[in-house]
Design brief:
Elements lengths: L8 H17 L4 H19 L3 H21 L2
Family: Belongs to the UPF0352 family.
Protein name: UPF0352 protein NCTC12872_00786
InterPro entries: UPF0352, YejL_sf
């Protein structure tokens, strides 16, 4: 999703593949997959970012990056 990242593509690809394997193994439908991933993002922000304003900024940045990634994929 991110164009620039401090993480190596290899690390990102490994985690992405592991998450996809879990979703595929459970034959998770698209809507449930999105619900689970959305809850995961919310939990990560709520449990790791104490400042509500910073959480809001990160959520907004994440949301925009997701939208941008969909535009560039077409």
């Amino acid at each position: 999703m991110a164009i620039k990242s401090k993480y190596q593509n290899e690390q990102l690809d490994t985690l992405l593949n592991e998450l996809l394997i879990v979703l595929e193994k459970n034959k998770t439908p698209v809507d449930l997959s999105l619900m689970v991933l959305g809850n995961m993002v919310s939990n990560i922000l709520l449990n790791n970012v104490n400042d509500p304003q910073q959480r809001e900024r990160l959520a907004e940045t994440f949301s925009q990056a997701l939208k941008n990634s969909l535009i560039t994929k077409h």
